[in-house]
Design goal:
Layout: H1 5-19, E1 28-33, E2 38-44, E3 49-55, H2 59-65, H3 70-87, E4 94-96, H4 105-115
Parallel strand pairs: 1-4
Antiparallel strand pairs: 1-2, 2-3
Helix pairs in contact: 2-3, 3-4
Function: This is one of the proteins that bind and probably mediate the attachment of the 5S RNA into the large ribosomal subunit, where it forms part of the central protuberance.
Protein name: Large ribosomal subunit protein uL18
Organism: Acetobacteroides hydrogenigenes
Length: 120
């Protein structure tokens, strides 16, 4: 029997997480993508703490996002996440695509975070 889309993504996610882990020096930047929204967290896995988060539901993004395409909103979220990370003194992260293809909104978000000053 074939896997559902969610089961397939979870298997891919587990394969990625075996290799990708966030430390205090290079925290993990993970992306969650729903049909309408996109969320980013920068996580220190050793302490189990979320250091920075940004999403398309934040006020700064939601005000600008009216009438924009989802990929353009992802770009705004990536820039916001980079700004907040740099404000906390985080300049290098490990990117976790969370089982999604590195394509579309995930890629746009990653590129915007790089433009914002994050290294990965």
């Amino acid at each position: 029997m074939a896997l559902s889309t969610l089961e397939r993504r979870i298997r891919i996610k587990q394969r990625i997480r075996k290799r990708v882990s966030g430390t205090a020096d290079r925290p993990r930047m993970t992306v969650f993508r729903s049909n309408k929204q996109i969320y980013v967290q920068i996580i220190d896995d050793l302490q189990g703490v979320t250091l920075v988060s940004a999403s398309s539901m934040d006020k700064e993004v939601a005000e600008k996002a009216t009438g924009l395409q989802k990929s353009e909103v992802s770009k705004l979220v990536g820039k916001l996440a980079a700004e907040r990370a740099i404000a906390k003194g985080i300049s290098a992260v490990v990117f976790d695509r969370n089982g999604y293809l590195y394509h579309g909104r995930v890629q746009v978000l990653a590129d915007a975070a790089r433009e914002g000053g994050l290294n990965f």
